[in-house]
Automatic annotation (TrEMBL):
Name of this protein: Flagellar hook-associated protein 2
Taxonomic source organism: Obesumbacterium proteus ATCC 12841
Entry function: Required for the morphogenesis and for the elongation of the flagellar filament by facilitating polymerization of the flagellin monomers at the tip of growing filament. Forms a capping structure, which prevents flagellin subunits (transported through the central channel of the flagellum) from leaking out without polymerization at the distal end. Required for morphogenesis and for the elongation of the flagellar filament by facilitating polymerization of the flagellin monomers at the tip of growing filament. Forms a capping structure, which prevents flagellin subunits (transported through the central channel of the flagellum) from leaking out without polymerization at the distal end.
Pfam family, one: FliD_C
PANTHER family linked to this entry: FLAGELLAR CAP/ASSEMBLY PROTEIN FLID, FLAGELLAR HOOK-ASSOCIATED PROTEIN 2
C-alpha cells in the first residue's frame, strides 16, 4: 500500500493532512469500547486488591477463633525440651527421664586396608548380605524387616560394602572408619530403640560371613528404648521425641535426669502476649481493608463550572473503580456490622470491641486501638475476651467466627474448593473485557478499511488531477504556438 506522504503530489492538494484528519476522526469510534474495557480492567484490579486484603484480614481473624488464646509459654528444663500446639492446655506435669533411646551400632574388626577383597571367589560370582531389623507394628506385634545387598566377587572390600549398603537407602547406614589399628566397617541403625536392632549374616560366602556376621562384629552401642516417668506413670518409647503422652505436647529427651533429684516440672502457662499481638494484627489488617474499599467506592462530583455550554459533564476520573457497585456495598455493610456487634455472654464485661479499647470511626470505618485498655482487659479476664471472639458454640457466636464466615463468603475456601463472590464477579468482568477487545479489534478493522478507501480515492484524485494538469499544459503550449 502506498504511504500517506506520497499523496497530493499530482493534485497539489494537502491530501496527506486530510487523510490523517479522517483517520483521527474514525479512531474516535473506538472510544466507547476502550473506555468500557478500561473500566472492566480497573474493576478486576480493584477486586483483586480487596480480595488480597480480605485474605490478609482472615489470617488474624482465624487465629482469634482458637490459636491466639491457646498459645502457651513452655518452661525450660534440663533433661528435656517441650513444644506445645493449640491442642495443649495450661498445666504442670512432673517429668523424670530414666533412660534415653539409643540407636544400635556395630562394627567389624579392623582390616589393614579398606580396599582389600574380604570374600572368596564363588562359582556364581555372587553373595548376599542380609540385615534384619525388628519393627513394632501399631497393633503391638513385631515384624521382621529385611534388607538384602548382593555383592560380586570384586565387591567385597569394606569401602565397596559400605557403598552398596548405602545405595539401598534402607534403615541402616554404613561407613568406613580409620582407627589406630586399621579400617573398620560401622553399621548404624537410623531408628533408635529396640525397633532398630540389627542382625547381619552373609549367604554364599563363608569367608565374608566370618567378617560381617553380627556374631563376629562388636557392638558399639546397644539398641535401647527411652524410659521416662510422667505424672507418676512410667512410659517406654523407641524414640526420644515423644508426642503421644501429653495432648498437644512433644517431649524431646536430651539427658537422663539427675539421680536423687526431684522430678522436673514441665509448666505450661497461657501466653497473653499472643492475644495482644493478634488483636494488633487484626486492627491493622482491618484498617488496610477499609482504606481499599473507601478508595474503590469513592464518589467525586464532576465540577461543571469550567465547561462551556456546548460541552457535556462526564464522570469524574477521580471516582473509585467500584463506585456504586452493589456487591462492594453489601460486603462493606456485612463486615462493618460484624465488628460493631455484641458477642459472648450477656453478662460479660467484654462483649464488644469497644470494651477492649478498639474504637471504630462511624464515617471511615477505621479502628483505633487503646493498647493500655486492651492490656487491662486481657489481664482482667482473658477467658471472657476469648469468648467474645470465639463464642460459646452455635447458640452464642463469636466475632471472629462471624467475620471469618463473611470473609470466606467473598474470597472462597481452598479446603472445600469453593469460589467466593469476588471470583465470580471478576470472572464476569474479565469475560466482558475480552468481549470488548473483540469489538475493538473488529471496529479497528473497519476503520482501517475505511481509511484505505479514502487513501485510494485520494490517490485516484492525484492521478486524475495530474493528467488534467498535463493536458492543460499541452493545450496552453498549442495555443501559444498558434498565436
Amino acid at each position: 500500500m502506498a504511504s500517506i506522504s506520497s499523496l497530493g503530489i499530482g493534485s497539489g492538494l494537502d491530501t496527506e493532512t486530510m487523510l490523517a484528519q479522517i483517520k483521527a476522526g474514525e479512531q474516535t469510534r473506538l472510544s466507547p469500547y476502550t473506555a468500557l474495557q478500561t473500566s472492566y480492567k480497573s474493576k478486576v484490579s480493584s477486586w483483586g486488591q480487596i480480595s488480597a486484603a480480605l485474605s490478609a484480614l482472615q489470617k488474624p481473624t482465624k487465629s482469634l477463633t482458637n490459636d491466639a488464646f491457646n498459645t502457651l509459654k513452655v518452661s525450660n528444663n534440663t533433661a528435656f525440651t517441650a513444644t506445645a500446639t493449640s491442642d495443649a492446655r495450661a498445666d504442670t506435669h512432673s517429668v523424670t527421664v530414666e533412660k534415653l533411646a539409643t540407636a544400635h551400632k556395630i562394627r567389624t574388626d579392623a582390616e589393614n586396608s579398606q580396599d582389600t577383597q574380604l570374600g572368596e571367589s564363588t562359582s556364581g560370582n555372587s553373595r548376599t548380605v542380609t540385615i534384619t531389623q525388628t519393627v513394632k507394628q501399631e497393633d503391638g506385634t513385631d515384624k521382621q524387616v529385611t534388607m538384602e545387598v548382593d555383592l560380586k566377587d570384586d565387591e567385597t572390600s569394606l569401602r565397596q560394602i559400605a557403598k552398596a549398603i548405602n545405595r539401598e537407602g534402607g534403615d541402616v547406614s554404613a561407613s568406613v572408619q580409620r582407627t589406630d589399628n586399621g579400617y573398620q566397617l560401622v553399621l548404624s541403625s537410623k531408628t533408635t530403640g529396640k525397633d532398630g536392632e540389627m542382625t547381619v549374616s552373609v549367604s554364599g560366602d563363608t569367608k565374608l560371613d566370618g567378617v560381617l556376621n553380627s556374631n563376629a562384629m562388636t557392638q558399639v552401642s546397644a539398641a535401647e528404648d527411652a524410659k521416662l516417668t510422667v505424672d507418676g506413670s512410667t512410659y517406654t518409647r523407641s524414640s526420644n521425641n515423644i508426642s503421644d503422652i501429653l495432648d498437644g505436647i512433644t517431649l524431646s529427651l536430651t539427658a537422663v535426669s539427675e539421680a536423687g533429684k526431684p522430678a522436673e516440672q514441665l509448666t505450661l502457662t497461657q501466653d497473653t502476649s499472643a492475644i495482644k499481638t493478634t488483636v494488633q494484627d487484626f486492627v491493622k489488617a482491618y484498617n488496610a481493608l477499609m482504606t481499599l474499599t473507601t478508595n474503590a467506592s469513592k464518589y467525586v462530583p464532576y465540577d461543571a463550572s469550567s465547561i462551556s455550554d456546548d460541552q457535556t459533564a462526564t464522570t469524574n476520573a477521580e471516582n473509585g473503580a467500584l463506585m456504586g457497585d452493589s456487591t462492594l456495598r453489601g460486603m462493606i455493610s456485612e463486615v462493618r456490622s460484624s465488628v460493631n456487634g455484641m458477642y459472648g455472654e450477656s453478662d460479660s464485661d467484654y462483649s464488644a470491641l469497644a470494651d477492649l479499647g478498639i474504637k471504630i470511626d462511624a464515617a471511615t470505618g477505621q479502628m483505633t486501638l487503646d493498647e493500655k485498655k486492651l492490656d487491662e482487659a486481657i489481664a482482667d479476664n482473658p477467658n471472657d475476651v476469648a469468648s467474645m471472639f470465639t463464642g460459646k458454640g452455635e447458640d452464642v457466636p463469636g466475632l471472629a467466627n462471624t467475620l471469618n464466615d463473611i470473609i470466606t463468603k467473598y474470597v472462597g475456601d481452598t479446603d472445600t474448593k469453593t469460589d467466593g463472590i469476588i471470583k465470580t464477579s471478576t470472572k464476569t468482568l474479565t469475560e466482558q473485557s475480552e468481549q470488548m477487545q473483540k469489538q475493538i479489534d473488529k471496529t479497528q478493522r473497519l476503520i482501517d478499511a475505511s481509511v484505505e478507501r479514502y487513501r485510494v480515492q485520494f490517490q485516484n484524485l492525484d492521478t486524475t488531477m495530474s493528467k488534467l494538469n498535463s493536458m492543460s499544459s499541452q493545450l496552453s503550449a498549442i495555443l501559444t504556438s498558434l498565436g
